[in-house]
Amino acid sequence: LGLGLGLGLGLGLALRLGSGPARAMPFAAAAASAAAAAAALALSLAQPARASLAYEYPDGPTSCCSAHEDGYCGCRASIDGPGDPVLVLVYVWVALGLIMLAAHGILRSKQSDVRGRAADDCFPCGRFARTEPTGAEPLEPAKHAPFVEAEDGNNAAALGAGGGVPPGLKYQGYCRDAFGTWAYRYVRATSIGIWLVFLCILIDKYNDCEVRGPDAQCFYGNFPITGSWYTNAQIYVGWWAFTVVWFGVLFFFSRDLRNWFRRPCDLSEAEVIWVFQPEREPENFTTTPTWLVRRARVLKAKLRGNRPRGTAETLPVMETKGCALHPEPLRCVTINCLRYLLTDDGLVLPELDGGGRTFGNFNAALKKAGGVDGLTRDEAAWRREQVGENRIAYEIDSWKALLFGEFVTVMFFYQCATYTWWFWESYLFTALVEASIVFGSMAFAIYVRHINQRSIKAMAELRGEATVIREGTPSRGDSADIVPGDALIVEGAGWTAPCDMVLVRGTAVTDEAGLTGESMPVAKAARPLDFQDMTVYDEGKHAKQTLFAGTTVLQASEDAVAVCTRTGITTSKGRIIGLILKPPKMTFKYDEEFTVVFAVLLAYGAVLFTYSLSMQSARGSNANWTVQLSIGIFTISQMVSPLLPVFLEVGPVMSAKRLRERGIFCVNPKRVAICGKVRIAAFDKTGTITKEGLEFAGVWAVGDGGPEDDALVMPFNPGSPSVTPALLRGIACCHSLTKYGDQLVGNEVEIRMFAGSGWDLEGLAGQPPRVFDPIGGDALIVARRFDFDHARMAMSVVVREAGGGGGHAMAFVKGAPEAV
User: Fold this and answer.
1) Using CA atoms, how far apart are residues 657 and 273, in angstroms rounded to an integer?
2) What residues does 712 pair with on adjacent strands?
3) Nearby residues of 630 by Cβ (< 8 Å), 6 or more positions away
4) Residue 134 DSSP label
5) How far apart are CA 445 and CA 403, in angstroms?
6) Which of 11, 22, 56, 430 is most deeply packed, by most CB within 10 A?
7) SS3 for 777?
8) Local structure of residue 47 (DSSP, 8 states)
9) What's residue 155's pLDDT?
10) C-alpha to C-alpha distance for 461 and 459, rounded to whole angstroms
11) Which of 182, 220, 183 is nearest to 204 (CA)?
């Protein structure tokens, strides 16, 4: 009957997922289930009566005799009681190992970790300037102008990271310890030996077993090692208890286990560094928590206490190759794709000093008339030593790390503790099938995560070529060699910006759709060349002068030159990649409820375990205590199925696979469930309204005499008497438009307004823009533009009449009514 119902439900599900009228699907499923159940019931009733047949439980093969038994035996056991030399060797191995671990623990307790020291306590964040090495030739301020200057007069090297050391960052250096290394090797060898012992127990249990159908599924063998089921059971229970304790301790201290076998030391001699990065509380999406969830939150808060929330990892210390200015290699470590330097003061994240990056300093790089000096090759090499290559240092997790992340979990620990018992207690084939499902699903999850990481690495890589000016000579090379402070020639025709740059000469038109979603080309223009311009550069306020990494340069003037400000992960594209690689944590409703449900089921299973043992004792059961223990453990495993994690994981993993086939990469498949709860998605993008189809309807012309002279000109006509020459000139020149070929580039409102004026725009390399009336002959030269500022809510231009003698100068202002 159960088989029939299962086949019926499967057929009904297939019909439900197939094509056909949706209304008929449930009826088809119900009809198929009923028909299959009826057929199965009829077949079972048609079978001949078996009441007269005696049921015979398989006896299995004859057990081997113990080593001390006399007489003939088909086989003799390999182990002769608890005093057997093999078991004595195991006892000695465990005892010596425990003594070794205890001795190392005593020595380790006398070594102090400095994990309580935070990065912001041992080194000031933000304002760091590393001076040039002693003996290095002093560098000219013009060449180092964009970066902070050290107090001793030497110029600071380019430290182009984005921000100081994160507050709350804690770290500790560790060195190799000879005794600890041997102790760690013992732990690894013992862990492998534990599973070898389990394999021997299974071979002893199932050797020469019978497989003859549903009633004989290899329940037990002839015990060639122990000689009896009782001895095998005692050894297994002892093994299982030791294994649970052993791997439970290893699992609980898995993150810090390797460092426990190392010696804490100063950063100057550390081989690896333990780093703790604080995290904020995850965003909680549970709107109506149940009473149990609220109680669980309180309990979790009490158990956590005052411990900070965050993640810890152990990172290797690397050494650079050294350079001409600094032959000695620098010691560094990479945290979140950022290079930190190891100094006597602790971890140091080099950064640009915002107070020293003024437009006057940037312009100081243009030393020669008609040329650019740039950095020297030695200076560039020294800066690369400190900030690293211009690339996002994202590395795909090794297979070891992927396995560690998938297997070192609470649920896998529970699965191992359950399935090992199933394998031993005559549940061989069922345990084999379910364990295969578990390992198969984990292997598939690891594969999907690996493929997604490879896709993200390919997306994060920004490799190409660029023309860099060093020592006054342009040279084309790999963009990975660019360092902050380099002067680059801005190329057009689809060139991808390799780093964040500030445009110091010329103009450019870029496509920022891949970065900001802006579908229209964006015009960029350098500020006027002014060595005394002390305006502090800010990429947000001065977006008109900033070329962002990853954006496409559609057009650039022949004299366009930019200075690199940020490289690698600190660029605009790098920060977006960083959010993808390490997104903020979120707590979904089911995350909290699953923990509560799992705890309730475990508690319920513990109650039934106790009840099972008490009932067996009350009914006078003469079964061996190992059998009674097995019944209790099986009761718990039925309450909390070991396949439960598979059910919860296979859906998100398959969803991530289907998303990947559509070009969407998900690093954390668990977030798919959150996306599945989205019902309304609201989008608000700048420029959504101001797109094709916008029309310039007209103007309200304000007269000089008073309101009676005002006039509405709609549709707009440049030749209307109400449109004064000053009004027409303002419409024609007060904008931030540029030309990309024959196409106007800029804000759509300004494009339509300028087109309505009937004037034209031209801009020659090295010359200010010029607007002119092709019919009337009037022409204006735009001497200076003040782009739209959100704080002022206005923009303005200064223009001169074209012609000899410089012409008459005028200023036009455009903005919000209250601002004007």
Assistant:
1) 36
2) 700
3) 421, 425
4) T
5) 10
6) 11
7) coil
8) S
9) 29
10) 6
11) 220
